[in-house]
Amino acid sequence: MLWSQNASPLRSRNGCLVDLSDKSCTFKVTLRNFRVILSWELKNHAIVPDRYTLQYTVISRPDSVKIVEHCSNITASFCDLTDVWEVLPETYVVTVDGFRGNTTLVTCFIDFFLAAFISLEPPEFDIVNFTDHINVNVNFPPVLPKILEELLQFHLSLIIEEQSGEIVKKHNPALDENVIGNFTYVIDKLLPNTNYCVSVYFMPRNLEAIRRSPVKCTFLQPARDTEF
Amino acid sequence: MTSRCILQTALLVYFSTTVLAMNYNLLRFQLSSSSVECQELLLQLNGTSKDCLKDRMNFKIPEEIQKSQKFQKEDIVLVTLEMFQKTSDIFRRNLSSMGWNESIVENLLATLHWQKEHLEEILEDIMQEENFTWDHRTLLHLKRYYLRIVRYLKAKEFSVCAWTIVQAEILKSFFFLDKLTDSLPN
């Protein structure tokens, strides 16, 4: 939607190319471990600021530009905005100034519709195997930030993929809007003495590119013979 | 004879309900696909809000739409029709200042038009087969919302910044349209 010219595409969707960069920086917005992280990279690597300050506003209301306190005079080139941005269907207008000493070396500008551009990294998970089933544990945060509620309620589904040999099955556990803490999904009716691999990812509603987790594999123990 | 009539009537009602029930499943899929298509096309329309912050306006999308209030399925058809229709009307206006890719705009209008026509057919079926009370209040709020957008464009003389702001607003409105669509019954 709102992008600057002279940009190189970050990703494609159904053959259409979209972008999050201006002439000075490339931006990414990512859901990582249930946190919304905006990161940036200068295109000209010869410019090396030692500090950054991020400001933002929104398109849908004539609000003033806001400085994000925990993203002012920072050395890192990313900012956690989970508790700052509460609205998913919004176009955020972001400025990042890069400084060295008292000199502004670079100003990067971007605007983007958050719901369309957030990249969903898979959540961390672990698996516990039993004879004929596998427990898949995903740790949700103890308190869901508002923007995460909106993401989970509507914008994305959790998919658990189970593979054995050539057979892949997808499970789409229903996520309660109040899902917090340890979430366990049971993949049942499995065959003992068989190897299974599990991967977890978020499926965005708008069918954006999926980012799968690394697979975790386990060999289910043989069933015990209980008959005499 | 009476039993036969009752059976025939029951079968007619069953199949009518079944066909309309199937239409809602198909409609949900179609609406979702059209909405995704429209959002993709809107995102392809280039531009930047860099010099446009002074032109921002709160168009106040109706709260019932924003908060995904529970609607009857028939009202969802009416509301989504209004949204596709009004969006189409907006993008048929003076776009000359934008320099947007004409084929993208044409594809957007074609998608909006196709979905609007299909919704009109569904609405005709609903009006013939069912008795219910329309939610006129929400429709009125929606009409006023789109009227605010059109008035804004006219006041700003269809400037580049005005279209950039409206583009973002319409994109947002499709997000809420998706939520409405999701609430159509199975």
TrEMBL record, chain A:
Give the family from UniProt: Belongs to the type II cytokine receptor family.
Q: Which residues form the signal peptide?
A: none
Q: Which GO terms describe its cellular component?
A: extracellular space; plasma membrane
One Pfam family this sequence matches: Tissue_fac
UniProt-listed PANTHER family: INTERFERON ALPHA_BETA RECEPTOR 2, INTERFERON/INTERLEUKIN RECEPTOR
Role according to the record? Together with IFNAR1, forms the heterodimeric receptor for type I interferons (including interferons alpha, beta, epsilon, omega and kappa). Type I interferon binding activates the JAK-STAT signaling cascade, resulting in transcriptional activation or repression of interferon-regulated genes that encode the effectors of the interferon response. Mechanistically, type I interferon-binding brings the IFNAR1 and IFNAR2 subunits into close proximity with one another, driving their associated Janus kinases (JAKs) (TYK2 bound to IFNAR1 and JAK1 bound to IFNAR2) to cross-phosphorylate one another.
Please name the source species.
Neovison vison
- Per UniProt, what is one GO molecular function of this protein? interleukin-22 receptor activity
Localisation? Cell membrane
Q: Tell me what this protein is called.
A: Interferon alpha/beta receptor 2
From TrEMBL, chain B:
Picking any one GO molecular function of the record gives: cytokine receptor binding
**What GO biological process, any one, is recorded here?**
negative regulation of multicellular organismal process
Signal sequence extent: none
Q: Which Pfam families match?
A: Interferon (PF00143)
Q: Which domain of life is it from?
A: Eukaryota
Q: Is Chaperone tagged as a keyword?
A: no
Q: Does the keyword Cytoplasm apply?
A: no
Q: Which UniProt keywords apply?
A: Antiviral defense, Cytokine, Disulfide bond, Glycoprotein, Secreted, Signal
Q: Which SUPFAM superfamilies match?
A: 4-helical cytokines (SSF47266)
Q: Where does this chain mainly localize? A: secreted
Q: Name one GO cellular component term.
A: extracellular space
Q: Tell me where it resides.
A: Secreted
Q: How does it assemble?
A: Monomer.
Please give the family membership noted in the entry: Belongs to the alpha/beta interferon family.
Protein name, entry field: Interferon beta
